[in-house]
Amino acid sequence: MGNLYWHNALQYLGILYSEKEETHLDRRRNIFYTRVLLFSGTVTILALVKGLMGTPQWLTVIPFLVFIIFITTSYWLIKSKNFKASKLLFLFGLNLFILTMCSLVSKEKLTFVYFYPLIAIAYVIFDDSDHRWKVVCIVLPSVLMIILAIFDFKLFGNIQFATSDVGSYTMIINIVASVVVIAVCIDFLIKNNRTSEKLLRNMARDIQKKNEDLEKTNTELDRFVYSTSHDLRAPLLSIQGLVNVALAESTQDSAAKEYLIRIGDRTKKLDGFIQEIIDYARNARTELRPEPTNLKELIEEVIKNLEYLEGADKIKFSITVLPNELVFLDKNRIKNVLSNLISNAIKYRNVNTNGMWIRVSVTNEKELSRISISDNGIGIKPELQTKVFEMFYRATDKSTGSGLGLYIVKEILNKMNGHISITSEYGKGSNFVITLPVRYES
Ligand code: ADP
């Protein structure tokens, strides 16, 4: 129970081993840290042995022993891959050890300078994801140094190492050792920087290459889809022609006539599907071609082309748009969009309603044109409204289409920097609103 509590607390503080994937730089950092740890361990043991060989003051041996325990535990944590916990333990131990040494050794030996490399080590061994621990390990030695500077810090009262006559040498050794450690840390940082730069450059090159490959594949795929669809249409159209001829000639056999009508229907549907794929591929592979467009005429033309659709004759169409205004738009694309939306409004009409209607209105603002297509058809269930723009998505079993229409509409509008939104009430009707950036002809 208690164990679990500590485990959870350490995990919360982000000290325990996390599942984070080790990057190349993390690995370098960890190797560097392991070397620092082993080096400190060796130096401490040597210093302890040297101390024991003289006339040892037993109390002063204790800090060395405690620090060796810290180092051993930190090393054990490395072995169990708990790098963060190991680094923290080591740095806290080192801070404590240097603090103790400062209080045991006379001030002239400048033992406190070891706090500087400690800051450098903390800076190097923690990465940015361990930011808070990095800050703690940088602030701690700084605070300890200030405390030492202000107060006459004596951890063990008046007990001190015997002052030897090599005091000034120790001072020089302390300064040189600190400078060397700081230099090693800076060197590591510079090398790390160079490695990251190299990695970034390689990654950028990889991404660029992948992008080029992807673009090539995309273009080839679009070309393939476009030409295949075109090639498929030709035999389909001749089948349709042959069906029409056969229908005209086989007036006697009613069963054969029925089959021919069905073949005709199926080929028409297939042709519609292929036409949709062609529309999609054309949108993807061709550039925008804005031209002066009279939206009123265009909407009338689209509705006229759709008059043959089943049920269209029972619907009342109304158009609200300024008659003579010309806008600069890609006419073919917007025609395709309107055709898709108006044919949907016809297909998904509500046959149980008296007075079916479809209203198309255009309002022009500064550089935006807003086209709204509303109907009092079957509507779309709220939870399906965001999905209708997905590829091959059908929101009703009344659909006999491929579920591609609204996807193509969205793709075309994306290309035109436009936008489409939908509001619909199930059983009452739908309203699609397109917004498009346009220029007006002066
Ligand atoms: P398709 O019409 O081929 O099924 P679309 O992509 O054109 O594919 O439309 C996706 C779905 O959105 C349709 O299956 C239909 O359920 C719904 N939908 C589209 N327009 C309307 C509309 N005006 N009224 C009701 N439902 C619509």
Describe the structure.
The chain contains eleven helices and eight strands. The chain has helices at residues 2-12, 24-53, 58-79, 83-104, 115-125, 131-150, 167-249, 254-285, 295-305, 331-347, 405-415; strands at 290-294, 315-320, 326-330, 356-365, 368-375, 419-425, 429-437, 439-440. Helices cover 61% and strands 12% of the residues. With 442 residues, the protein is of the alpha+beta class. The structure holds adenosine-5'-diphosphate. Adenosine-5'-diphosphate binds next to helix 10 and helix 11.
What attributes does this structure have?
442 residues; alpha+beta; five-stranded mixed beta sheet; three-stranded antiparallel beta sheet; 11 helices; 12% strand; elongated; binds adenosine-5'-diphosphate
Shape category: elongated
Question: What's the total number of strands?
Answer: 8
Report the order of strands and helices: HHHHHHHHEHEEHEEHEEE
Beta-strand content estimate? 5-15%
SS class: alpha+beta
Mean pLDDT: 87
Q: What composes the largest sheet?
A: 5 strands, mixed
Distance separating the two termini: 80 Å
